[in-house]
Design brief:
Blueprint lengths: L5 E7 L6 E7 L2 E5 L1 E4 L11 H6 L5 E4 H6 L3 H6 L3 H5 L5 E4 L2 H5 L5 E4 L2 E5 L6 E4 L1 H11 L3 E3 L11 H21 L7 E6 L5 H12 L5 E4 L8 H11 L9 E3 L5 H10 L3 E4 L1 H7 L2 E2 L6 E2 L19 H5 L2 H9 L3 H27 L3 H12 L6
Parallel strand pairs: 4-14, 5-6, 6-10, 10-11, 11-12, 12-13, 13-14
Antiparallel strand pairs: 1-2, 2-3, 7-8, 8-9, 15-16
C-alpha cells in the first residue's frame, strides 16, 4: 500500500533504539529525529514563520480543535488549506483535538459517539467525534493528521485507563473509515494505556494491527513523574513497527527528547519552549535557567556560550534579564527564538551522533547534566 507519508531508516544505534531517518511528506522531506514547534492557532506564540525557518524548523504542529473554533475549518479550506492560509510551505501535523477537548474537564461530556463540550471562551456548545475530527482535519489539509482519541489524566485507575483505551480503539476504526484524503494526508494512530504496561501492550497490538503510515504514543506527561514517563516511553516504543515513523506526543524538554530518542522515537512536539520563554526561562547546555534571577542582571556573557542561535550570538544575559524584568515583548520573542532553536538543534545533534555511530557517548554526556531536575 502507498502512503502520503513514508519513512526511510538511515541508521540505528547498536547500543540503544536510537535511529535516524527521512520522513517524506507532500510538502518536503524531514530529517529525523525532529522536534516540531507548536503553532496551536496557526501561529507561533512570540515568533513568526520566517523566524521558525531561520532556526531550521522542518515541520510544525497546529491544533484542529482551536482552528475549528476560530476561524473555522471551512474558512481555512476556503483559503486554500492551512499551508496557504498561514504561508508555511513545509510539512504540517495537526492534532485531532482530543487532548484539548478532554482537558476541558467540567466543560465536556464523553460518550461513545464523541464529546459534547463548551467553547472555553464563549461557552457555546459543540460536538466532536471521530467523523467530525476527520472532517475538520481533511478540510485543514495538514500532511499528517491524528486519530481522535481519549486521553486520561494521571492518576487514573486501571479500569479508567482500560475504558479510555478501548474507546480510543473503536474511534480509530471510525477515523480510518471516514478519512477522505488518504492520497495526500497521512493518518497516524495513537497508542494509549496510561501507566499500565499490559494496557500499553494491548493498545500497541491493536493500533499497529491497522495498516497506517505512522503511529504515536499518547497519554504521556499528563500527571506522571519523570521516572514514570521514562518507563512508559521505554516500554512502549519498541512495540511500534520499525519501518514506520514513531511520534511521542506533547513531550519536549532537552532531557526528554534525548531519552526518547534513545528509546527509538522519531518525532516530538511541545509548547514548552515558547511557554517557558514567556516566563523568562531558557534552556542551556548547563540546564534550565530563569533569566529574571538576580545573578543574570550583571552577567554580560551569552545566554548559552555553546549555542549558535542568533540570540546567543547577539545579546547578553544582562540585556535579556532587563527585557524580561520590564515585561518587554522583545524578551519573550528572543527567548522563544533561543528555546525553539535549542530543541530543534538538540534533535539534529542526536541525529548526527546516530549517523556517526557516536550516540552512546553523546547520550552519556547529556545524561550527566540533564537527567537531573531542572534548576529554575
Amino acid at each position: 500500500m502507498s502512503y502520503a507519508v513514508t519513512y526511510q531508516l538511515q541508521a540505528q544505534c547498536p547500543w540503544s533504539g536510537a535511529r535516524a531517518g527521512l520522513l517524506t511528506t507532500p510538502h518536503g522531506v524531514v530529517e529525523t529525529p525532529v522536534f516540531m514547534p507548536v503553532g496551536t492557532n496557526a501561529a507561533m506564540k512570540s515568533m513568526t514563520w520566517p523566524q521558525i525557518e531561520e532556526v531550521q524548523g522542518q515541520i510544525v504542529l497546529s491544533n484542529s480543535y482551536h482552528l475549528y473554533l476560530r476561524p473555522g475549518h471551512d474558512l481555512v479550506k476556503e483559503a486554500g488549506g492551512l499551508h496557504r492560509f498561514m504561508h508555511w510551505n513545509k510539512p504540517i501535523l495537526t492534532d485531532s483535538g482530543g487532548f484539548q477537548v478532554f482537558s476541558l474537564d467540567k466543560l465536556r461530556t464523553i460518550h461513545e459517539e464523541g464529546v459534547n463540550f463548551k467553547d472555553h471562551k464563549t461557552g457555546r456548545p459543540h460536538f466532536i467525534g471521530p467523523e467530525k475530527s476527520m472532517e475538520i482535519q481533511n478540510a485543514i489539509g495538514a500532511d499528517i493528521i491524528m486519530a481522535f482519541d481519549e486521553c486520561v489524566a494521571n492518576p487514573a485507575t486501571h479500569d479508567q485507563a482500560k475504558n479510555a483505551m478501548e474507546r480510543t480503539h473503536r474511534w480509530l476504526e471510525r477515523c480510518v473509515a471516514t478519512h477522505r484524503r488518504q492520497d495526500d494526508q497521512a493518518l497516524f494512530g495513537i497508542v494509549q494505556g496510561s501507566i499500565y504496561e499490559d494496557l500499553r501492550r494491548q493498545s500497541a497490538a491493536f493500533v499497529t494491527g491497522i495498516d497506517l503510515p505512522g503511529y504515536a504514543v499518547g497519554g504521556v506527561a499528563v500527571g506522571e513523574d519523570r521516572q514514570k514517563i521514562e518507563e512508559i516511553v521505554a516500554y512502549t516504543t519498541p512495540l511500534l513497527p520499525k519501518e514506520k515513523p514513531r511520534y511521542l506526543m506533547g513531550v519536549g524538554t532537552p532531557w526528554d527528547i534525548v531519552y526518547a530518542i534513545k528509546c527509538g522515537i522519531d518525532m516530538f512536539d511541545c509548547v514548552s519552549p515558547t511557554r517557558l520563554a514567556r516566563h523568562g526561562a531558557a534552556f542551556t547546555h548547563a540546564g534550565r535557567i530563569s533569566i529574571k534571577n538576580s545573578p543574570h542582571q550583571r552577567d554580560f556573557s551569552p545566554l548559552d556560550p555553546l549555542c549558535t542561535c542568533y540570540v546567543c550570538k547577539s545579546y547578553t544575559r544582562a540585556y535579556l534579564s532587563h527585557l524580561v524584568r520590564q515585561s518587554e515583548m522583545a524578551g519573550a520573542i528572543l527567548l522563544s527564538i533561543h528555546n525553539v532553536h535549542f530543541l530543534i538543534n538538540q534533535a539534529q545533534e542526536c541525529r548526527q551522533a546516530i549517523l556517526a555511530g557516536e550516540f552512546k557517548e553523546y547520550f552519556s554526556r547529556w545524561s550527566s547534566v540533564h537527567a537531573l531536575p531542572a534548576h529554575l
